[in-house]
């Protein structure tokens, strides 16, 4: 895990989910305000003591041919995802000039595709909340009603 300190904000670059969980639990234990982003989109640091940048979490975790689904880490960029999907003859229906942002940032800002937002392309998503709780969200469910681990 990499760490940088600038103007009272500690920025962490976790290498994997384990690092991410450690950072969040340490922030919770010390009552620090945190913000997480995918690493490719500007983020307002005001009022934040810890910034988590997912720029090192860029792995393709899984491809399931039966479900025709991919699992990616949040720091992977749209162009990297499209290259991976193209290799398996898949694509995302995006139109216009698409900024090459991370998938986490694209979901956060509501990137639009030809059939809706990029978030609507998700089958499921694991969300790690600032309080340390891990929520599995499935397409069609409201995050508030999803089952927590």
TrEMBL record:
Domain FAD linked oxidase N-terminal: 17-136
An example Gene Ontology molecular-function term: D-arabinono-1,4-lactone oxidase activity
Record's GO cellular component terms: mitochondrion
Entry protein name: FAD linked oxidase N-terminal domain-containing protein
Pfam families: FAD_binding_4
InterPro entries according to UniProt: FAD-bd_PCMH-like_sf, FAD-bd_PCMH_sub2, FAD_lactone_oxidase-like, Oxid_FAD_bind_N
SUPFAM superfamilies (alphabetical): FAD-binding/transporter-associated domain-like
């Amino acid at each position: 895990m990499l760490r940088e300190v600038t103007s009272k904000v500690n920025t962490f670059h976790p290498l994997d989910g384990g690092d991410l969980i450690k950072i969040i639990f340490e922030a919770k234990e010390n009552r620090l305000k945190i913000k997480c982003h995918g690493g490719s989109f500007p983020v307002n640091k005001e009022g934040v003591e810890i910034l988590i940048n997912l720029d090192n979490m860029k792995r393709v975790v899984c491809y399931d041919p039966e479900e025709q689904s991919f699992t990616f880490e949040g720091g992977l960029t749209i162009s990297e995802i499209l290259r991976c999907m193209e290799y398996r003859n898949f694509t995302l229906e995006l139109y216009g000039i698409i900024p090459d942002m991370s998938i986490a940032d694209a979901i956060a800002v509501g990137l639009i595709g030809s059939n809706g937002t990029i978030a609507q392309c998700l089958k499921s998503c694991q969300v790690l909340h600032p309080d340390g709780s891990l929520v599995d969200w499935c397409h069609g469910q409201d995050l508030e009603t999803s089952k927590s681990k």
